[in-house]
Structure formats: structure tokens, C-alpha cells
UniProtKB/TrEMBL annotation:
Protein name: Cytosine/uracil/thiamine/allantoin permease
Superkingdom assignment: Bacteria
UniProt region (Disordered), positions on chain: 1-26, 544-587
Annotated signal peptide: none
Upper taxonomic lineage: Bacteria, Bacillati, Actinomycetota, Actinomycetes, Micrococcales
Bilayer-crossing regions: 51-73, 79-100, 127-146, 166-191, 203-221, 241-262, 282-304, 324-345, 366-384, 390-415, 447-466, 478-495
Coiled coil: none
Length: 587
């Protein structure tokens, strides 16, 4: 283990994902595969609240508000919507836990753990696909946040209305100003690293809740509680007609979260334990999303008696209140909410994904710069309002999220049996276990193609047929994620059965991350032994108490003082002593 960060000028001042030395860059790691942002973390310290706050930021946005509100306008009864909400979000929770485990156990981000399944070079296939999707939606979310900021300018600076008459590249001068402000603010937040982002999302999620509750209470008081309905549709479906609509609602919930769910390992890797990640997912997904959805429908329902029409856009709701303080507070709140989801869903992912392509030249920061600049050149304001443009461009890429998810889950849980040789993910040695064929696992590549082609067809062609007046089976597109996930999972296992490639390292323990065992072990390296000889006997944590006890061995005291934590996913004779954060106390 080395304390000297093996980074260079390409890392743009320091590793942005964590402080200097945060990534355990071992001397034998190939610079074509590793930098401090991609290497296994030395410390994993995010609590369940940090994961909970991550999901709050992902849910509390204009898009989340509209999505939740739309479920209550499908003609379903209230209890049916609630069942669909719970079923959909529980599916998301289960899948998020599954994709979180390999990254949390090994301490590496989503593109790196894919090297186990796709191969050292093949991992760039899912990384680039996910990165391109994130770039497009990063621009869209920034544009939506800018629209919120426009309202504030128009309310408090009346002269700014003249800027709406001047436009460039399809966007008004005021739109450009707001977009530039939001673009810069997000970039500065990202530039300061993952810890600053963590603190921001820890604050942003609860802050949005406070304003949403205040908005709901105000509107209900104006409308009268007797006028609040949990059904926003003017028509009601009978029971049998409602069944496919309920299934579509479940699919909508899963599809909405499919992007951040796929690369959730980018965040789960920071979790101090897998148990903490699962706890955060429980509070952040089913509990948080159902409560937010109920708050949304109450607010939207109150707009009918208060304003005379149903308003499902929270920005327009705040604008209609026409109180300067409400517009300022509401506008800034939803700007904050949109920035939060943009950072966690569309900035972090391409940062790691593009860094994975060329770690020596592209750091985490540089990857984020590529995403931010690229999103502007896509000019999302010109195509976001065009349903066809979204469907036929992002629909193709989005349809591949399901197959990529299915292949990763099949590869890690079934073929690799949750056993990963961590250091082998960072070597270009042609004899390495993850080199496969020229750095690509042919089974994974074939599975992407074989599952991706029909999934893209399911996502794209039904709408094309309907638009041409041929026949309408567009409902099947709602299930493209499930179809892709199932095909990717099944086809990868089939190809692996016919031609096994992924190693399981049966009988080996050294350097192996074993996800089937709760015990995480770390080798006592030479540097740790030096520390043990030089640090006096002081204190060590008492398991589960947060207190300390005198007279413990010096090496444990050094660990208790946070000078070193075990490398994620490696083996050692030392056993964990606290169930909540076993990497911070060894006994």
C-alpha cells in the first residue's frame, strides 16, 4: 500500500472524486486502466443517510413531480395508483441493491466493475453508452432549471423581458443567461469533488421537502381539504381495463429510475457497508418516493379549485401564486432540486465513464468537463419539446440500459459467483483473468448485440408503425427495459454456459472480494506493520458503542484514528468488529 498518489498533471490539480490518496493506486496498476478516481477507495464512509439523500435528490425534481402526478391522471383509482407506485419502486429498490453490491464490496465505480464481465477493454462499451445518455439528459435538466430561473428574472427584473426578443441558436438571450448561470453553478459544484457534492445533496433533498410541504399546506388551505382528491383523471377505468394501465405505471416508475439505477455503483462504492447502502435505499426509494408522490398529488389536486385548472408543473404552480416571496422561494427551490438530480444522475456517471476510457488522459474532472461542454453543443432546447427527436435518438440509447443491467447482474452474481480479483481489473497483462480475448469478453459483446437489437426495435418501431397508420402496439415500448434486462441476463448466461469465460477463483482467497461473505478482510502490508511498530498503545473502538477502550494493540489504534482503512474487497486474517461499519474497526 502506498501513501503517495500516483497522479499527474492530467488529474487537474487533484483526484476530484475524493482527496489526494483516496484511491489506492498501487504501483503495479497499469496507467491505461487506473487513476485515483477509478482505483479502489481507501475509505468508504457514506452512511445510510447519505444514500437516502442521494435518492431524495433523484426524486425531488420537476421531472419527478410530473412523473408522479401523471400516475394519478391515468384513470386509476387511488388505491390502484398506490399499489403501482409501491410495486414499481420496490422493483427499483431490489435492482439498486443488486447493482450496488459489487461496487460497494470492491470500492470501484460502475465502469470498472464491468471489466469483470465485459473485459478490461470491453467495459468501455457500457461506459460510453451510459455516458452518452447522461450527456443528453444533463443538457435537458440544465435547460429546465434555466426555465425556472427565467421566471425569477422576469418577476424581479421587469426589464429582462426585452431579452426574450433576442435569440441565438434557438434560445433567447435571457435563456442563455440563465443557462450559463446554472451551467457554471453545477460545474463549480462538481469541480469541488464528491465530498462537496455529498454535502450538497444531504442538504438539497430535505430543503425541497420543506418547500413542497409548505406549498401543499398553503394550497390546501386555499382550496379547502374537502376539495382535495387523490384522482386527477376525469374518467375512471373499470377493473379489467385498469390492469394493463397499472402494469404500464409500474413500468414507468422503473424506467424513470433506470439511468441512475444502472450506474448506482458510482455512489454505492462510498457506502461504509452494504447494510448501510441497503438501509439508505429503503428509506430513499419506497418510503421517500411514495410520500413525495402523495405530496405531489395533494398539491396538484389543490390547483383545480384554487386556479380553476389542473397544473402538474410545480414551476407554473408557484408562478400562479403571484407572490414575490413565493416565486423567489419556489423558483430557487426547484432550481436546487433540478441541479441535485442533474449532478447525481447525469454528471457523476459520464465523469467516471469517460475517465474509464483513457484514465491517463481523462480524470474524473476532465470526464465531467466533456459531459458539460458536450451537453451544450447538443442544444437541448431545440429538441426537448420534440417527442419524435427524443424517441428516435435517446430511445435507442435508453433501450440499451436494460440489456447492460441484465448482463452485469448475470455476470457478477451467477457466472463470477460474486468473487472478484480486484487487482486484476487494473492490469493489461494478456494472461490476466479479465483479458479474455484482446481485452473483450466475447460473450458479453454478443449478449449486448443479441439483446440490444430486439430491445431497440421494441422501443422504436411500435411508435413508427403507429405514426404511419399501420397498427398501434406502442404499449409494448413501455416494457422495453424489462425486455432488454431479461434478454441480456438470459443470453449472457447462455453464452457463458456454451463457452465459459468469467473466472470464479474457487479455492483462492488472496486479493479476492467475496460478496457472499459479510466478513471483509484486508492484508496487513509492510507499511501497516511499520505503523504498528511506531504508534503507541492508545485506544480502539468498543464494538457498536462509539466509545474507546484503553490498552488495545497499536495497529488497531492506528485504524481507529482513521489513518488507514482496509482496502475494499481484499482478504486478511483480521475480522470485522462492528456490524454497521466493519471497515472502520478491526478486531
Amino acid at each position: 500500500m502506498t501513501s503517495t498518489p500516483l497522479t499527474g498533471p492530467h488529474d487537474l490539480v487533484e483526484a476530484a472524486g475524493h482527496p489526494h490518496g483516496g484511491g489506492n493506486m498501487k504501483p503495479h496498476y497499469d496507467e491505461r486502466l487506473a487513476n485515483e478516481d477509478l482505483a479502489p477507495l481507501r475509505k468508504q464512509k457514506w452512511s445510510s443517510y447519505n444514500i437516502f439523500a442521494f435518492w431524495m435528490s433523484d426524486v425531488h425534481s420537476v421531472g419527478g413531480y410530473v412523473t408522479a402526478g401523471s400516475l394519478f391522471a391515468l384513470g386509476l383509482q387511488s388505491w390502484q395508483v398506490l399499489v403501482a407506485l409501491i410495486a414499481g419502486i420496490v422493483i427499483v429498490q431490489v435492482f439498486a441493491n443488486m447493482v450496488a453490491k459489487p461496487s460497494q464490496k470492491t470500492g470501484v465505480p460502475y465502469p470498472v466493475i464491468n471489466r469483470v464481465v465485459f473485459g478490461i477493454r470491453g467495459a468501455n462499451i457500457p461506459a460510453i453508452i451510459r455516458g452518452l445518455i447522461a450527456i443528453a439528459w444533463y443538457g435537458v435538466q440544465t435547460f429546465l432549471a434555466a426555465e425556472s430561473l427565467n421566471i425569477i428574472f422576469l418577476k424581479f427584473i421587469p426589464g429582462s423581458v426585452a431579452l426574450l426578443d433576442v435569440s441565438f441558436a434557438g434560445l433567447s438571450a435571457l435563456g442563455w443567461i440563465s443557462y450559463a448561470i446554472l451551467w457554471t453553478a453545477q460545474f463549480l459544484l462538481f469541480w469541488n469533488g464528491m465530498e462537496v457534492i455529498r454535502r450538497f445533496i444531504d442538504w438539497a433533498g430535505p430543503a425541497v421537502y420543506v418547500v413542497m410541504i409548505v406549498l401543499a399546506v398553503y394550497l390546501v388551505s386555499q382550496a379547502g381539504i374537502q376539495n382535495i382528491s387523490f384522482t386527477l383523471s376525469t374518467t375512471q377505468l373499470d377493473f379489467w381495463a385498469s390492469i394493463p394501465v397499472m402494469l404500464g405505471a409500474i413500468a414507468l416508475v422503473v424506467s424513470y429510475f433506470s439511468g441512475p439505477m444502472l450506474n448506482f455503483g458510482d455512489f454505492a462504492r462510498y457506502g461504509k457497508s452494504f447494510a448501510a447502502v441497503k438501509k439508505g435505499n429503503f428509506w430513499g426509494l419506497p418510503i421517500n418516493f411514495v410520500f413525495f408522490s402523495l405530496l405531489t398529488v395533494i398539491t396538484a389536486s389543490a390547483t383545480v379549485p384554487v386556479f380553476g385548472s389542473l397544473i402538474t408543473d410545480p414551476i407554473k404552480t408557484v408562478e400562479r401564486i403571484d407572490t414575490p416571496f413565493a416565486i423567489l422561494l419556489g423558483g430557487l427551490t426547484f432550481v436546487t432540486a433540478t441541479v441535485g438530480i442533474n449532478i447525481v444522475a447525469n454528471f457523476i456517471s459520464p465523469a467516471f465513464d469517460f475517465s474509464n476510457v483513457a484514465p491517463k488522459k481523462i480524470s474524473w474532472r476532465a470526464g465531467g468537463m466533456i459531459a458539460a461542454i458536450g451537453s451544450t453543443f447538443l442544444m437541448p432546447w431545440n429538441w426537448y419539446s420534440n417527442d419524435d427527436a427524443i424517441h428516435y435518438s435517446l430511445g435507442v440509447l435508453g433501450a440499451l440500459i436494460g440489456p447492460l443491467f441484465g448482463i452485469l447482474i448475470a455476470g457478477y452474481y451467477i457466472t463470477a459467483r460474486q468473487r472478484v480479483k480486484v487487482d486484476a481489473m487494473f492490469t493489461m497483462d494478456a494472461t490476466g483473468p479479465y483479458w479474455y480475448r484482446n481485452g473483450f469478453n466475447p460473450n458479453a459483446v454478443k449478449a449486448v448485440i443479441a439483446a440490444g437489437v430486439p430491445t431497440v426495435a421494441v422501443a422504436v418501431f411500435p411508435k413508427l408503425f403507429a405514426d404511419l397508420g399501420m397498427f398501434d402496439v406502442s404499449w409494448i415500448s413501455d416494457y422495453s427495459w424489462f425486455i432488454g434486462c431479461g434478454l441480456g441476463y438470459a443470453l449472457f448466461l447462455l453464452f457463458e454456459r456454451l463457452d465459459p469465460r468469467v473466472p470464479t477463483f474457487e479455492g483462492e482467497t488472496e486479493g479476492i472480494s467475496d460478496g457472499t461473505s459479510d466478513a471483509v478482510e484486508a492484508p496487513v502490508e509492510a507499511e501497516d506493520l511499520v505503523l504498528a511498530r511506531t504508534v503507541p498503545d492508545v485506544v480502539t473502538p468498543v464494538p457498536g458503542s462509539g466509545a474507546v477502550a484503553p490498552g488495545a494493540p497499536a495497529v488497531l489504534a492506528q485504524t481507529a484514528q482513521d489513518a488507514r482503512t482496509p482496502e475494499p474487497g481484499t482478504a486478511s486474517p483480521l475480522r470485522r468488529s462492528t456490524p454497521e461499519n466493519p471497515r472502520e474497526a478491526l478486531a
